[in-house]
Inverse folding.
């Protein structure tokens, strides 16, 4: 996970690589399910063989402890 | 659809608004299904209440007639 600022807002971003579009889309849907369960929604960029997840907290325009927890939970989805 | 250049590559981009995350994700999956059927894959940015689709052709680093066709087919998914 890379902490980065976009338009002055701190975010946590990580790129996940996959062998094809189908596997990328499956990961997108897993992350979406996590987001709904957590009532916290990242941006999810789905491309051929790649998904980029970005977590941040809109309400504070930056990073909250919860974003780091959600990032860790996103990593855990890879093993499922 | 807005034609725009990103890193010197011409692309077609459109933002679709939805009432919540679930509806946005449903649209993401419809576009993904279209992409697999067309053997042509856009980038799909899924956010709370919003999906941004970007079509372009990697092989020519720009826009091909097929991108415009896929953009029109993406619009048609809204009515389904």
């Amino acid at each position: 996970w890379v902490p980065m600022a976009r338009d002055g807002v701190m975010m946590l971003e990580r790129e996940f690589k996959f062998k094809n579009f189908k596997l990328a889309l499956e990961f997108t849907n897993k992350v979406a399910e996590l987001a709904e369960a957590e009532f916290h929604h990242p941006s999810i960029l789905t491309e051929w063989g790649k998904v980029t997840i970005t977590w941040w907290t809109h309400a504070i325009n930056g990073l909250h402890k919860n974003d780091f927890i959600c990032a860790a939970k996103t990593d855990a989805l890879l093993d499922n």
Remarks:
- Chain A has two helices and four strands.
- Residues 35 and 41 of chain A are 5 Å apart (CA to CA).
- Chain A has one domain: 2-77.
